[in-house]
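Ticket #4471: structure output looks truncated?

Reporter: J.K.
Steps to reproduce: submitted the chain below (230 residues) through the standard prediction queue, then opened the result file.
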Amino acid sequence: MDIEKLIDKYQLNKSESQVLRFMEKNKPTIKNMGIREVAKHCFVSPASIINMAKKIGFSGYSELLYSFLNTDTSENAPHTFTDDEKNKFIELFLRYHEKRIMVLGFGFSQIIANYFSEYLNLYGFRSSAHSHLELIRKTNKDDILIILISNSGNTVRLAELASMSDEQNIETIAFVGERNSKIGSLATLTISTETHSSQSFKEFSPNLFFGTALNQFELLMSEVLKLLYA
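Returned output as attached by the reporter:
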């Protein structure tokens, strides 16, 4: 929660701003304070705090407090990648920020590829969800980054593209459901959900790959964007 942005956005008065700044400053101990104690420290009434909370979009003090204690979504989200993988992802995206990015998938993975590509374009990257095979050559090895999305990690056409990219020294990021797969073994960086198994093809069995891959992408891109625009 960016306190100063909230204060500016909702044009909070001095007393209202003081409450938010007090809560931010005392975040480690605020969960043990009741609304009356916070009000006492800030020289305002409990009703004023409740009204301020509603003014900035919360139902009351309890929801405001919960938001303060759960602002870091990356701490609570499931981490299905290592720090080394995160750092490599950041390095690649910073390096290819102004270069071309190709995001590829087939079937349901194409829907995820479209989302990734639109997301990247929204934040100023040059991304396409269509394959341009003429770009996969050594002369373009420093000008294009390829992202491959495959639940099994063995989608034939994508595996061929991964092999072509590897031969031409073009860097690739693979989002796969199985790390030890054809695509996973060829990629420069493999982000695996570790959710793929034969069991996933049983009737009514949940397919966790697509949702998990989206979460991974969102978490990783959040780190990239912080470095680019924060």
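Triage note (M.O.): checked the attachment and the full token line is present. Confidence is low (pLDDT under 50) at residues 198-203.
Status: closed, working as intended.
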